[in-house]
Amino acid sequence: MSHSEQVNTGWRRIVIVVSITLGMLLAALDTMVMSTAMPDIQEILGDFQLYSWVFSAYMLASTVTVPIFGKLADMYGRKRIFSLALLLFIGGSALCGISSSMVELVIYRAVQGLGAGGVIPLTVTIAGDLYSVEKRGRIQGLFSSMWAISGIAGPVVGGWIIENWHWSWIFWMNVPIGLLAMAGFLLFNEQVEPSRQKIDYTGALTLSISILLFLFTTIVPYLWLVPLLLLMSGLTFRLFLQIERNKSHPLIRVDFFRNPMLKWVNITAFLVSMGLFAVPSFVPLFAQQVMGYDPLESGLVLMGQVLGWNILAVLSGKMIIRYGYKKSILSGISLLVAGGLILLLFASRMTYPILIGALFVMGMGFGLGMTTFTISVQEAVEPRERGISTSIQMFFRNVGATLGVSLVGGVMNMTSGLFTLQASFMFVFALSLAITFSALFTGIYVPHHVMRTPSS
């Protein structure tokens, strides 16, 4: 049993878990609320050409900082770094609330994103410190449900604020909730000796540039720029690897990926996130525009995914212990493929119960697969490196999800003028299913049990 498990018990543990869950809910809800509110905000602030950058700035900042926050948490402790990330998110929210132009809003959304890049992965890392493998699944299920809840509540909250209050309250409401979360988290006790090693600023800067160049390929308006950005990103990443090999205390240990668990789990998580993980975000649109349901009914269909996700997330710890990581991951991907097949085969004659059933099956796949991904990379390293291993895994998932959403949006745009919306969704379902199916082949190489990478 770790030190964190021993000292953070009883009511103290409950308060801590509620606090970090509030932090994750804020980060998840923010994106969903913004999706609903941005058309009205843009009309007030103007500069339509910056519309997409309000989302892109947040996404880019949060993705770039994920591995950096993970490393800092291993060096200086979860409490300090999570508190710093949460303060950045709260401060960024307050700044967004006082924005008087779209340029200011884009800049302040980037500050928010910097905080989100620490809040989300460190929430999962802290849960790994607090609970054993067997119990960790139910907590991961709780965290996962925050995203599904935000997917349903976000549009409702955003719409209500826009109609009844000033748009800035979308951001101001984050401040008291965030401060409440921080107050509860102060109860967290950990035993940590701050590292005296130097922070690898060169590696952090080089990796950040490589990631930014890669993510810019999803938002640039000119197709000819994509190959150039990919080449520049690849060359910069190669430079980053050379820097890390020569550092005595690198940002990311390159030998992490010699561990087959870390290597194959991250590759598989990337493919799953790039595949069907993006589809539920577009399902409410399918329910409204193709099936004819109202916004509330189309949002409630996601409860099928929430229920399925939580059922198998809760059971995942016991399944890992009984069947091992490889079988658990392959089972999760198989459930995802089954749910995706239902969506594809019934897309032309979809009914509400079938749609809920398909999302329920997919939810079970996500619940088992995603939770196993997280637990496996946490257990594959020494406890003091759990922060960076969890953050790297979240990073792979973030990049995969970003590309997945971009692919879905691109397919929808390309096919909307040539086919019906229903046919466009069939293309989306087929492409996402094919990508997820490919994860079965990488999942085969995941070890049955942990082979821990020794700390440096």
CATH superfamily descriptor of the largest domain: MFS general substrate transporter like domains
Mean pLDDT figure: 82
The number of helical elements comes to 18
CATH architecture of the largest domain: Up-down Bundle
3D architecture notes:
By secondary structure, the chain is an all-alpha fold. It has 2 domains: 1-200 and 247-251, Growth Hormone, Chain: A (Up-down Bundle), CATH 1.20.1250; 254-456, Growth Hormone, Chain: A. It contains 18 helices and no strands. It has helices spanning 3-7, 10-45, 51-76, 78-97, 102-130, 133-164, 169-172, 174-185, 201-216, 225-246, 260-274, 283-289, 295-300, 303-323, 325-345, 352-379, 386-416, 421-443. Helix 15 (325-345) packs antiparallel against helix 18 (421-443). The longest helix has 36 residues, at 10-45. The mean pLDDT is 82.
